[in-house]
Amino acid sequence: MYKNQLQELSQRSCFNLPSYTCIREGPDHAPRFKATVNFNGDTYECPNYCTTLRQAEHSAADVALTELANRGPSNSLAARILDETGVYKNLLQEVSQRVGSSLPTYTTFRSGLGHLPVFTCTVELAGCIFTGEPAKNKKQAEKNAAMSA
What predicted TM-score, i.e. pTM, was given to this entire model? Predict the structure, then answer.
């Protein structure tokens, strides 16, 4: 999943495709793998050794996506692509699952004229409520709330 998201991000932003390198160690009956991914000139490494090459590459891609998302919304092309692909909502859901809390709950409010609606969304996570910037559609309002969280 993470490798696919990183590849989609590179294709949308016209970057070179991510390239993976892997270290294999240990005996043949119990190998361990640690991967790094080069994305747009930056290198991201999986934090732990994994039992399969696939897990190591996904872990490295997860680190890359998380770090790119943590840079937050900005005018950079990569950040705009992250906003468009909805990575923030995915990351928020994954974090809630990792820490064992309930899934994020989105509440959207519509205001404005019938032909010019304005949507504002809040997301509740672990008892905290975050409000996103207003948007022209519900989908973007939810992404804004996730970015705020």
Answer: 0.52
